[in-house]
Design goal:
340 residues, alpha+beta, Aminopeptidase, 3 domains, 9-stranded mixed beta sheet, 4-stranded antiparallel beta sheet, 12 helices, EC 2.3.1.-, GNAT_dom, Glycine N-acyltransferase-like protein, Acyl_CoA_acyltransferase
Length: 340
């Protein structure tokens, strides 16, 4: 076992590129370390320079972000035996604490289970992911921006909104991670032009008026009574919308869709607000950010949960490709409430 020096981490980056897509997650960590991005990681290998297993783990325990909270260890291995040997080395994994082993090759999960079983440690497969990657601009199927929208980088004040919709977010630790992603890594969001937003609200008001007219044509006593009771709230709602339009400048630029980059360089947190879906915003964001990343020399890839066919089809339609025989596993060691 060896903890790599800064110079060795630079060398490791070039070596890892030879083993895509299996090495992409660890490569993304190393890529950002080598470019001076803020991190709390150290890189460990089974041997050097001819390594067959590499692990990026938190340097300091208990960091106040999601990566520290979940004690995330990113793993690459060429074969199950090398992974088992590395994990079995004293001091590599704290088997008495909770850890999330991320990116384990599904073909090598047995090595993790074997070492854990020897120590009487509970393990659990959290999720299995497809890995989709894009290696060149010629591979990318470019997608033009939808009319009436602006595409721009996210800002720090958007972190609360993004954290509130993130599947793995919602608490203070994840909020700190989102803030870090926005501050230190590329990101994009869609905001609507003022005219586009007003047009959307006009459509909604017209739909409400159509419903009211239908009720008026229905001559039943119960409908008339219910209409009489509901007219005032509906009128107030419309007046509120008009007032909000006047205040548009105070909240203009609020994102309706966004895409970020994790600290391991994977595209992530792709989300569109429900009322703005089916308008091509996700395709616009993936296409735009992928182009920017390729121009800057970043790896371009993402993890899509197995079974999420809609996301898989989206990325495939834009030129991303995955290796059918490869899956990355997020593997839990101990339970989240486990104490030493």
């Amino acid at each position: 076992m060896r903890v790599l020096s800064p110079g060795e981490i630079m060398e490791a980056e070039a070596m890892l590129k030879l083993h895509f897509p299996e090495s992409l997650k660890v490569y993304g960590c190393v890529f950002n370390i080598n470019r001076g991005k803020p991190h709390n990681l150290e890189v460990i290998v089974d041997s050097w320079p001819d390594f067959a297993a590499m692990l990026c783990r938190p340097k300091t325990k208990g960091a106040d972000d999601r990566e520290g909270d979940f004690n995330i260890h990113s793993i690459y291995s060429r074969d199950a035996h090398s992974l088992r040997t590395l994990l079995d080395t004293p001091g590599v994994i704290d088997w008495g604490a909770y850890a999330l082993l991320a990116g384990v090759d599904r073909n090598h999960v047995g090595a993790v289970e074997c070492v854990a079983k020897q120590r009487g440690v509970h393990t659990h497969t959290q999720v299995i992911m497809r890995v989709l990657s894009l290696y060149s601009a010629t591979q990318l199927q470019a997608h033009d921006s939808a009319p009436g929208c602006r595409v721009q980088p996210l800002r720090p004040e958007h972190a609360l909104l993004i954290n509130s919709t993130w599947k793995y977010g919602g608490d203070a630790h994840s909020l700190n991670s989102v803030r870090s992603y926005i501050a230190h890594h590329p990101s994009l969001c869609v905001t609507l032009e003022e005219e586009e937003e007003e047009e959307r609200e006009d459509e909604e008001e017209e739909e409400e008026e159509e419903v009211d007219e239908e009720e008026e044509e229905d001559g039943s006593e119960s409908t008339a009574k219910s209409r009489g009771l509901s007219q005032a709230p509906v009128a107030r709602k419309r007046r509120t919308k008009r007032r909000m339009r006047k205040r548009r400048g105070a909240r203009s630029g609020t994102p309706v869709a966004w895409l970020l980059l994790y600290q391991h360089c994977a595209l992530g947190l792709l989300y569109t607000m429900p009322r703005y879906r089916r308008r091509g915003y996700a395709r616009t964001l993936v296409s735009r950010l992928s182009q920017q990343l390729l121009e800057k020399g970043y790896p371009v890839y993402c993890f899509v949960e197995e079974g999420n066919d809609a996301s898989w089809r989206l990325f495939r339609s834009l030129g991303f490709r995955d290796k059918d025989s490869y899956r990355a596993v997020w593997f839990e060691v101990n339970s989240r409430d486990h104490k030493h």
